[in-house]
Hints:
The strands form three sheets. Strands 2-8-7-6-5-3-4 form a seven-stranded mixed beta sheet, with helices on both faces. A three-stranded antiparallel beta sheet has the order 9-12-11. By secondary structure, the protein is α/β, with parallel strands linked by helices. The longest helix has 24 residues, at 257-280. The chain has helices spanning 19-30, 43-55, 71-82, 99-105, 125-131, 154-164, 225-238, 244-255, 257-280, 310-322, 347-362, and strands spanning 6-7, 65-68, 88-93, 109-114, 136-142, 171-175, 201-206, 219-222, 295-299, 325-326, 328-329, 338-342. It has two domains: 6-15 and 259-362, Aspartate Aminotransferase, domain 1, CATH 3.90.1150; 33-256, Type I PLP-dependent aspartate aminotransferase-like (Major domain) (Aspartate Aminotransferase, domain 2), CATH 3.40.640. Strand 5, helix 6 and strand 6 form a beta-alpha-beta unit.
Amino acid sequence: MSLSPISLASGYVPFPAPAVATEAAVAAVQAGPLPVLPAAGLPALREALAGRFRQQGATVEAGQVIVTPGAKPALYALLLAVLQPGDEVLLLTPNWFGFAELVARAGGTLRSLPLSAADGYALHPEAIATALTPRTRLLLYSNPNNPTGRLYTRAELDGLVAVTRQHPGLLVLADEIYDLMVFSDERVPSLLEWPDPHGQHLVVNGFSKSLGLVGWGIGYLIAPPELARACAAWQHATGSAVPAPIQQAALAATLAAPAVAGEILERLAETRELMLQELNSIPGVRYVLPTGTYYVFADLTAYLSPNPAPADAAALVGRLREGGVEVVDGSGCDAPGFVRLSYAVPAADLREALGRLRATLTGSAARP
């Protein structure tokens, strides 16, 4: 009989929203009739977000910031605005499984540029240059990366920008939604920090991953002014502004971002250490040490045949589920045989889930 599963597949932290945010939302509700905000967002929030990036050395104005009802709507608004039928989106993989459907719904064609666990998912500028074609309209990457937890350094992004700047018609979209979830002294360099003479650089971000506003439905995009205005016009035509209390909560979280993110990181430190220790003790399990996010992207290919079929990786995920552990199948991230494991889980549940993972895997011997 199958065990009741413990999920290590969630993309969210299980903590209450930060008090500073909930208090701001309640105050906005209690202040009287709610204002109908501009589609582009609360001016104070847009300015606070622009100011945050200016503090990091970027040249960003509030008019480039559009507040959206989540990070996925931010991505979709940008993709709709820039893609024409036949346009390609080059995605550095492994990457988040949701990009494929967004690109398809926006009329684009997704093409993968696989990075390798063997060299720590390093960015190689020459590989990017070779992968670009006349049909490539957009280069898409995430930093820190979901699912690998890899943080791309300033030096690596120097190389990427050096390539993309040679193609003025190419746009570069950085998903930076985990930018404050970093377990090192390094800071995530935003794409916005690089000079952008051709207006190529786009960024999406949100509040559910790094700032704990899970389920509040708010994100944002930052783009060159004309494109930002086009996204705001689309949002005005197809919906409405994010409600004022939610934007006030996001403003409060933005102004207190170091403290809010720091508390989340502190609460995750124990389960992060637990997961790394337990995975290190399971024969055949490998991973690239994650610097950011709250995931480990574990390589379980030692538990597959030397030349596995796609169905074999799915079957392994199915066996884990039967053993009582829900994971994200790496096949959806362009990495069959890998699984994404979240340690944003209560310690007792995580310990039990990792024990089940071990028992399921070691029931059959790993390949050396």
